[in-house]
Amino acid sequence: MEIMPMQAIIFGSIPESILILWAGLMLMGIKPQIKKVVVVGILQGVSVYFIRKYMDFGPHMIATTLSLIIYTYIFIRVKWSVAIFSVMVPCIIVTIVEGSLMIFTDANFVYIWSSNWLRLLYLLPHEIILGFIIYIGYKEDISLCNEFTWLEKIAG
Fold first, then answer.
1. Number of folded domains in the chain?
2. Does residue 1 fall inside a structural domain?
3. Which of 116, 123, 3, 120 is nearest to 51 (CA)?
4. Domain range for residue 87?
5. pLDDT reading at 135 higher than 90
6. Which of 2, 16, 67, 143 has a 20 to 30 A CA-CA distance from 44?
7. Is the pTM value of this prediction over 0.70?
8. What is the CA radius of gyration of the chain?
9. Residue range 86-118, pLDDT digits in tens
């Protein structure tokens, strides 16, 4: 259990939640209202604070993912399958990028997590990748639904 510093919530969790949701919806071919995505990001940032405060490492990941799926369903007003897919795919991308950083760098993660600002720098690689997905989705009108016809059944 951890009490996250306020700058980690404001500059870390909230932007990360916004980018995860926005990229996930773009991958599903949905161009959401940015205002709704920001509201969900702020709610998720507050939720992450309390989840991290009261849950151990591991279960907190499941709880934060579920909360983002629920917020997506309620506020973005998409089907459950779309909400799940829109959150899970970017979360998998984030996990791959963070795992790669752990494997291929010689970073001292205890030191990184103990520094409020270094912890925010650690988020940049996957946030850049999610931002690139959003940019390409808008610029080229590319989505996974365009590429995989079976996803159109999920997005309905």
1. 1
2. no
3. 3
4. 6-155
5. yes
6. 143
7. yes
8. 16
9. 999 999 999 999 888 878 887 777 777 777 787
Place of tokens 């459950």: 80
DSSP codes of every residue in 17-50: HHHHHHHHHHHTT----HHHHHHHHHHHHHHHHH
Provide the token pair at 65.
């993912």
104 in any annotated domain: yes
User: Does residue 50 lie within any of the structural domains?
Assistant: yes
Find tokens 């992450």 and name the residue: 48
d(CA 41, CA 27): 18
Contact 12, 48 (CB under 8 A): no
CA distance 16 to 44: 10
- Please state the rounded mean pLDDT for residues 120-128: 87
- Hey, what are 114's tokens? 């103990």
- 3-state class of 142 per DSSP? coil
143: left (phi over 0), alpha (psi -120 to 50) or beta: beta
CA angle 32, 35, 40 (to 5 degrees): 85
